Amino acid sequence: MTAVYGRLQTLLEGWMRRRSRESTPPIRLRYRRVYILPTRNGWLFVVLLTAMWLGAVNYSNSMIFILVFLLVGVSVVSILHTFANLVNVSVTMGRVEPVFAGDPLFFPVRLHNPSSKARIAVGLRMAREPQGFTDLPPNGDGIVHVERPTQRRGPVRLTRFDVFTTFPLGLFVAWSPVWIAAEGLAFPRPETGSVPPPSGGAGAGTGDLRTEGSEDFAGLRRYRPGDPVRHIAWKSGHARELQTKRFAAEGASRLWMDYERTAVNGVEARLSRLCRWILDAESEGQSFGLRLPGLEIPPDHGPRHSRRCLEALARFGS
Amino acid sequence: MSSAQSSTQWLSLPVITALMTTVIAVVLPHTLHLPLWVTAAYFILCAWRYLLARQGRLPPPRWLRITLTVAATIGVLLTFGSITGRNAGVALLALMTALKLLELRDKRDTLITLYLCYFLAATQFLFDQSLPFLLYLLGVVWLTTAVLISVSRQTAVGRPWRYAGTAAKLLLQAVPVMVVLFILVPRVSGPLWGLPDDAHGGVTGLSDSMSPGSISQLSQSDAVAFRVEFDGEPPAADQRYWRGPVLDAYDGRTWSRGEAQDFGDPPEGILRGSPTDYTVYLQPHNQVWLLALDLPGAPPKDARLTAAAEVKANSRIYETTRYRLRSYTEHTLEPRLGESQRRRLTSLPEGVHPRTRALAGRWREQAADDRGVVQRALRHFREEPFVYTLQPPRLGADTMDEFLFETRRGFCEHYAGAFTVLMRAAGIPARVVTGYQGGERHPDAGYMIVRQSSAHAWAEVWLPDGGWQRFDPTAAVSPARVESGLGGAVSQDEPVPAMARLGESWVKDLRLQWDRVNALWDRWVLGYGPELQQEVLSHLGLASWQRTAMAMATVLGVVLAVIAFILLGGRERRPRDPAARSYQLLGRKLARAGYPPRASEGPRDYLARITRERPEWRAELQHIVDLYVALRYGSASHPHWQRELRQRVAAFRPR
């Protein structure tokens, strides 16, 4: 029985998918891909109307007939209203901010209303679970965030969700399945507690290591976010930009974070520790390089660099 | 979204206020017949819930709600002796709706409460089906729908009144669907199951017994008993006797129907003269009697003629009923009377009315034959100082002797009863006929209205040479009663209902116009049952159910297509902003010249694309686009820019 049901489900899914055609954003929810069915409350309303109708027949009461047929009319007309509230809305995906494994990812789905009529309470759902609703003003947009939990690091894909609405009466639900390629990334969860510092870069390939560091002034360069405050050249007199004092150590003392030298065992534990190191180095404005089996990212600093390194950790092994 | 988390958001004070307004509006008409304690409990529960919401407090605990529910059920059971009848059911439904308010926790509870409101509105029609009621309840349905929309909405609920417009739109668009379904959905003749005893109450009409006071009470009502459309001219006023139940059993005070009438064959009768054909629209009176002009021929469908020539329907009249009849004002009813019949119809209870019997005995001796006795009796009523009044004095132990010899004040039931007793005492078969006498013609619409105030009783006497003959002793006392109705027959200070009074007044005129609307309503809407539907459908050429189904599908399809077009086709509407309108016009002009705007393109990109190919338009287009962008997206704006843009676009002619 369940096998038959499952097979039916698959067939239905395939059929809807073929009807959907477009899969690159913006996806416009055209007539042919909007479906409509009664909700649970809709069925309850059917039961109510049936009871009222039986009463009307039993008492031969014309007025109850009028009321019942009026309410039938309202429900039928509400099918059209619900449908019109969804059709032609278009869907695009916003940028997904990466998170650390264990935190939920939020996929921003942007809905656009191309018509001159406001769309009210349009929502998203996944596996029948509503994710959130928004109102779309005439010719306006709304954003609904689809929340996906992450348990482990790595990419999380959002492949299918429904855009749906039950406005105005909640008796019918109009929905349109959307297949869209959206990916969010979960970085490894940074290790907490007392984490030993990276073992320098001893034996690392590039250049000699001068640990004494930031003593020898080596000139000025443009300030980059993450530069230590004490290195800012407050008196440099540059009108527009902050300048950071460069010291000899910075150029040469490149920290290497090496997968093979994390002093822990297990892939995830190593990645966790690397993640911690990267975050710390980033907050201290230190320059570092990352070495993973089969990948080497040359030393640099700044948020973009850290981000690149964290992404490498997240995708490691996949 | 869990309910707890969202409940505070949507169950806001405005929503609660709207919900309270709805449940109170829906129960308001019910207060006319609900027991006082139910009404009081209903309002107290509503007020309680409202105060809880105002103070932001939680609903009462579960045990208290259960206790209240049980108490309400027991209360209904004690008041009505049942929880299933019409009145008990409605009382219980009302109480449960109010109790449901107390446990509003999530959206679903609220929706169920609103569904119950629709149901309560429907039950109202079991008590009253008049037009003003329908209008009131349509208002209630409108309100309920608006609140339903605001509660079903998942985003910010806001004030429910905001959805009055949407609700009105839904209801108006539903009206054509309702009309189609009302006409075409096959009507089954009910009832499907046994109706409770109190299914139809509070309706006035003739009963099948008569004692002093019963008809004068009925006469004080202006309610319409039935309306009649005559095919030709209506009969003269003194011929408008509408025959109802015939009463031939007498216990010394009350006249009632003998059961023999129901088992005999229809009477042998000779009907003469030109027939009168007419259609009666009878208001529900919860009895089986179909009123017929004296004397009816063949009975209509679903009815039969009893041994006393009454028309009796096969089931009680609970809704407006339409029937056609043919009557003959000249007739000989039952020319031969059997001996046992004769004995029964001349019998009186032992030992009652000694003075009345003595009087009848004297007349018997003086008169040559039965007809002589009848004439003597009528002369007695005409010549002695009898008074026709709606307010006769109360009668004591022997009602008849007291009335005939002491008080001499009475209404038609007194005179008909006394006359019949006198006839029987003289050995002449006689019985009382109840019904209506008279009726006013609607000055414009032509149909005849017979009101409860025309309720009447008269006597029938069996004479060897003519069968049953109608004699109206009231007419002997007060000839005006038969000629001009109740208003002309009793004195001015009696409690005659307004419409029965003589004379013209604008109030009366207005009420007659209103009656016309009601007549149409009763005829076409309330009276729209299986039979009328059959007639209408065959008139429309929809004799078979297949054709009806086809017609229904087609008409509904067209109706829905029109609504869908209104809802979905309105996308390409003219923009409100005049600048956008001008720009749209420019786009159309350029499209004709071969450069249609693209949906993804802003005005500047559009300008750039066109001027690459048509540099000669650059100067003019640049101007227009600058104006448009300034008007649409700029912070400052001058009224004359708008005009300039419009003029430039109008003047621009791409070739």
Give an overview in words:
The complex is a heterodimer of chains A (318) and B (655). Chain A is an alpha+beta fold and 318 residues long. Chain A folds into three domains: 15-187, no CATH class; 190-209 and 254-318, no CATH class; 213-249, no CATH class. Chain A is 31% helix and 31% strand. Chain A contains six helices and 15 strands. In chain A, helix 2 (40-58) runs antiparallel to helix 3 (62-86) and helix 5 (267-284) runs antiparallel to helix 6 (303-315). Chain A starts with a helix and ends with a helix. Chain B is of the alpha+beta class and 655 residues long. Chain B folds into three domains: 3-179, no CATH class; 209-500, no CATH class; 578-651, no CATH class. Chain B is 50% helix and 13% strand. Chain B has a five-stranded antiparallel β-sheet, covered by helices on one side. In chain B, a hairpin with a 5-residue loop joins strand 10 (303-305) and strand 11. In chain B, helix 4 (62-80) packs antiparallel against helix 5 (86-102) and helix 13 packs antiparallel against helix 15 (412-425). Chain B starts with a helix and ends with a helix. Chains A and B meet through helix 2, helix 3, strand 6 and strand 7 of A and helix 6, helix 7, helix 8 and helix 21 of B.
Tell me what portion of residues of chain A adopts beta-strand conformation: 25-35%
Unreliable sequence segments of chain B? 1-8
**Global Rg of chain A:** 29 Å
Continuous helix count of chain A: 6
Number of domains of chain A: 3
Q: Gap between N and C termini of chain B, in Å?
A: 59 Å
The total strand number of chain A stands at: 15
- Please bin the fraction of helical residues of chain B: 40-55%
* DSSP summary: helix tally of chain B: 25
Oligomeric form: heterodimer
Order of H and E elements of chain A:
HEEHHEEEEEEEEEEHEHEEH
Percent of residues in helices of chain A comes to 25-40%
Low-confidence stretches of chain A: 201-214, 248-252
Q: Mean pLDDT of chain B, as a whole number? A: 84
Q: Strand sequence of the main sheet of chain B, in spatial order?
A: 12-7-2-18-17
Number of domains of chain B: 3
